[in-house]
């Protein structure tokens, strides 16, 4: 599902809440929002007003509670459904310092923001969708969350107890990125996830600046992973699905002025990572023209973590916050938001049925076979590996036969088949990972590795022989 990043602009009046049309009296900026989709920005010094169109535009009304609810209902609610359907999502709040990003994402005691509302509905919507499940259909639902900040380019775990825990960003084989070693909390209900949100907020780096009493000095990410497993005991069908959602409150861009060295260092890091984000977005926005641009994701921790959400498998939404006290900063945010609208991501369903898992396994097996064929030579360990592949293929064949009889098998048998599949996956991976062709330079080393593999495999082979006796005899 290839789609544009959805972009909304939220304008707050300089006083916090105020008139429906946002006109900042002192500094001559006038932001006029007639039709909920566009903003016209003008100042008396500039002759022509500039107009920008977005997916949504939100101006303040006289009720903050209503404003917070409207943003959630019109813009964010759909992402709860995307997440439950098995798609990855990401919601980012961007804007100058003091423009209301943290207020939009977290809210305050009386006006909850996007993050707590999203988490509440995640559990509520899941239970609504599954309350009519029959006896045959059971759905497992597991939610884990983590919370971290990017402070001066360092990733810091906000949920770890004790001293500050710094984490590294790693890349997976499929080129997506993740933060290694984060505290992931299993949350069973709304109260537990809300508790994690609060804990993360308490540990985040915040400081008073001349623009904002409680200015965020870091980019904060609340990360949710959802795992669902639906089993139909009547037909034996199993569908597993995993999805993630990143809820990101960025630090605000700011002019570096007065302040101590620490604050200046923070400000420089914030501006640097936001300018890398800007460059990444503008390259991705031009992506159609320059087929595959070299995107500098790695140049900042922020863009490296958000790689998948900006240019890959994700449904992404940007909320650009504007506080129209300064014409140039407001214009710059509106331009940034307008550019982001041109970026396309391609969310794919992260769901695998039992049969698809088997297909996946088969393709891994083909890869392994190819590797073995490519390396056909004088290697003394060669025949052992070939034998292993044959054994795996044999087991795979039995499993396939089992799949054909799927309609007749009971839930108990199905469970055993899944264990076999997992063991088979383990062995396939084990062989691929353990046998490092690039490193194995000498025949001697190959021999050693082969005998290790043989030992590991023999243990597992007895398992498969049992399975064979049980199902195919
Ligand atoms: N729409 C709004 N209505 C009422 N008050 C608001 C609104 N937006 C922000 N505020 C208030 O304005 C102040 C600054 O907002 P906030 O901290 O959310 O800004 P920010 O964009 O996160 O800034 P920074 O980049 O410095 O972290 C806070 O006291 C917040 O409660
Ligand atoms: Mg903030």
From TrEMBL:
SMART domains in alphabetical order: KISc
Pfam families per record: Kinesin (PF00225)
Limits of the Kinesin motor domain: 4-343
Keywords per UniProt: ATP-binding, Coiled coil, Motor protein, Nucleotide-binding
InterPro entries, A to Z: Kinesin-like_fam, Kinesin_motor_dom, Kinesin_motor_dom_sf, P-loop_NTPase
Residues holding ATP: 95-102
Keyword Oxidoreductase: no
Taxonomy, superkingdom: Eukaryota
Family to which the UniProt record says this protein belongs: Belongs to the TRAFAC class myosin-kinesin ATPase superfamily. Kinesin family.
Protein name: ZYBA0S05-03708g1_1
């Amino acid at each position: 599902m290839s789609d544009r990043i959805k972009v909304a602009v939220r304008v707050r009046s300089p006083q916090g809440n105020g008139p429906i049309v946002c006109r900042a009296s002192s500094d001559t900026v006038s932001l006029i929002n007639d039709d909920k989709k566009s903003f016209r920005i003008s100042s008396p010094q500039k002759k022509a007003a500039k107009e920008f169109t977005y997916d949504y535009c939100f101006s303040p009304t006289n009720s903050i509670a209503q404003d917070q609810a409207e943003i959630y209902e019109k813009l964010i609610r759909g992402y709860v459904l995307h997440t439950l359907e098995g798609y990855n999502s990401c919601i980012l709040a961007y804007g100058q310092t003091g423009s209301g990003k943290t207020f939009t994402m977290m809210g305050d005691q009386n006006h909850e923001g996007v993050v707590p509302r999203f988490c509440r509905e995640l559990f509520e919507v899941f239970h609504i969708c599954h309350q009519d499940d029959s006896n045959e259909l059971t759905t497992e639902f597991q939610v884990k969350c983590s919370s971290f900040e990017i402070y001066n380019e360092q990733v810091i775990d906000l949920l770890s107890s004790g001293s500050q825990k710094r984490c590294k960003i790693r890349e997976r084989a499929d080129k997506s990125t993740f933060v290694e070693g984060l505290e992931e909390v299993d949350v069973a209900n709304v109260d537990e996830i809300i508790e994690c949100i609060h804990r993360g907020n308490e540990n985040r780096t915040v400081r008073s600046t001349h623009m904002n009493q409680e200015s965020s000095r870091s980019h904060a990410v609340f990360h949710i992973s959802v795992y669902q497993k639906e089993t139909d005991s009547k037909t034996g069908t199993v569908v597993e699905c995993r999805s993630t959602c990143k809820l990101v409150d960025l630090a605000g861009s700011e002019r570096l002025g007065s302040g101590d060295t620490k604050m200046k260092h923070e400000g420089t890091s914030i501006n640097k990572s936001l300018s890398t984000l800007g460059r990444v977005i503008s390259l991705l926005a031009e992506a159609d023209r320059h087929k595959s641009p070299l995107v500098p994701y790695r140049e900042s921790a922020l863009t490296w973590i958000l790689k998948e959400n900006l240019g890959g498998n994700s449904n992404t939404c940007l909320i650009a916050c504007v506080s129209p006290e300064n014409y140039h900063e407001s214009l710059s945010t509106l331009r940034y938001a307008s550019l982001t609208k041109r970026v396309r991501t391609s969310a794919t369903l992260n769901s695998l049925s039992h049969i698809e898992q088997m297909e996946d396994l088969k393709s891994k097996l083909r890869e392994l076979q190819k590797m073995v064929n490519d390396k056909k030579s004088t290697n003394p360990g060669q025949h052992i590996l070939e034998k292993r592949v044959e054994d795996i293929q044999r087991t795979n064949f039995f499993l396939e036969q089992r799949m054909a009889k799927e309609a007749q098998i009971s839930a108990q048998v199905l469970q055993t088949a899944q264990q076999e599949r997992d063991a088979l996956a383990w062995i396939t991976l084990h062989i691929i990972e353990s046998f490092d062709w690039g490193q194995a330079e000498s025949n001697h080393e190959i021999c050693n590795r082969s005998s290790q593999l043989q030992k590991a495999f023999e243990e597992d082979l007895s398992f498969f022989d049992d399975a064979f006796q049980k199902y195919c005899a």
